[in-house]
Amino acid sequence: MKKRKALTLSVSALVACSLLLSACSGQDAAAPSGGGNAKGTEAAGTPGAGQNGVAGIKDGLIPATDKSKVPEAVKKRTDTFVVSLTEPGGIFNPYFYQNGYDGNVNSVLFAQLVDIDKNGKPIPGMAEKWELSDDQLTYTFKLRAGLAFSDGSPLTADDVAFTLTLLHDPAYDGQTDIAQAAVKGGKDYKEGKAAAVEGIQVVDPQTIKITTDKVNAQALYLLGGQVLSKAYYGKDYKPGKLDSIKQLHSKPLESGPYKLEKFVPGQEVRFVANPNFYKGKPAVEHFIYKTTEGDATQFFQTGETDYSGFTGNQDNMELLQSLGFANIDVYTASSYSYIKFNHSRPYFKDKRVRQAFIYGLDRPKIVDTIYQGYGQVADVPVSPISWAYTEEGVNPYPFDPEKAKKLLDEAGWKPGKDGIREKDGQRLSVRYFGSKGKVTDILIPIAKENYKAIGIDFQTELMDYNALLAKTKKGEHDLVSFSTTILIDPDDGVQSFNSKYKGSFTDTNGYNNPKVDELVAKAVGTLDIEKRKQAYKELYKELSDDPPYLLLNYRKILGASNSRITGLELNGFNSVNSSLPTVRIEP
Questions:
Q1: pLDDT, tens digit, 9 for 90 and up, residues 16-68
Q2: Would strands 429-435 and 479-484 be described as parallel, antiparallel, or unpaired?
Q3: Which domains, and CATH codes, for the chain?
Q4: Which SS3 state, helix, strand or coil, does residue 315 take?
Q5: How far apart are alpha carbons 183 and 168 in whole angstroms?
């Protein structure tokens, strides 16, 4: 049941949202080359001598040097942990939100059956264990004893069954693609041919057995996610009618470490510790996502926030170190950033045009300017920390305006009188959507200059994040910048390239490559890691030749917390939310 869609975030909005969270691990840091945490003898966060500043930057904690410099505002808070966040939309249900920032809120409110460790591997959450049958088709989850929702009502296998059945409802319109798990009888239920999902079997209050029709590497995550209360969400629910559930989006019944206390749009989301959380009530009574517009750096400097994420670059590293009171976690993001082509546009149906857009953009200059050695140009849709990462046989698309011009010529786009290319009476003029922020401040002028030089009219429109989602969902864009969220499995980074995928604003708007469809299915259709590696290797080569996206970069994240905060364990697969049960505030 875990939300497996690779939700995206505006590239620019990611700077403001702090790049820290399960749905907000964005366009602001960089990954080492070659996979895994960068290693070396240098201190964490320090570029290695003679290296490009990516592979030479070591992940790790840089401790505060002068705790006495903690701001007075921080000293006054004894029971509240405050973190920056950008623009949640207020849909507090893990299976219905579209805004990635709502995902941050939901990960605080709802615990999962299966959690993820620092290496991206599944570990027990609310399920104390699970078993997989010899044919790899049946999952049996054993829930921990004494699980409860925030109101004290028991959380049982019946609630798990209710949640999984809801995801198969014919009217379900959320982002979770439960069909990928291929639960036996799920398709018949969704089509109204069955009264129940055959493959979902409640064995006893603590045990549920789920039978699938085919092997799928994503099944464990899809089936082992967050749980909705049957008594609460199912009270007025009738199959095919979801209004009663949607009316509860602002009044969730939680199972996570904190309960929702108050949501003030444009200002904050307030939480209070959940005494019924299965790991025990958190030590810090109150948690706040500060969503007020403003300078996140200033909020951290003055002590209005206890934690914020920063663009991984040398300027921010030096700033944070100069404060004295900041603990700085340097870690490699598991996400990647990109510009999305709208494949419904006639000019983007020709792969030569898409290739020209990639060759024609000086990605190294953009990445180096923003990240100052803490970023790396992306050439495959997976982070270097993933076991699936490989660039073997992949076109690196170096900045090559002459190659771009040649491709556009071959595609029939010839320079017009004003230098802008034309074909069949149409000018090659494209609209780029983005959010206001430091990243677009750098990207846009470089892109305008680069594309004008090869005969492309690059028009831009900046807007707030929610407007960006709405316009992208409607397909009004030609190009739009996003970053993926945390990618646990390599399939998360490629599933939207499948022609059958329909994911609102994450949709490619018509990309269709039968070989890509085949390889995406092949890579996720086995649990054998070596077979999956080979499939992804083939897939990345095909995607390089027929690019659905213009890939931008990988990055490192600088997670800064004031020195009174302890218990944070940050890495590319786990964020602040994962650490909430262990966070403490020192006197």
A1: 333 333 333 333 322 222 222 222 334 565 443 233 334 468 899 999 999 99
A2: parallel
A3: 60-83+255-333+557-585 (3.40.190.10), 95-247 (3.90.76.10), 337-554 (3.10.105.10)
A4: helix
A5: 9
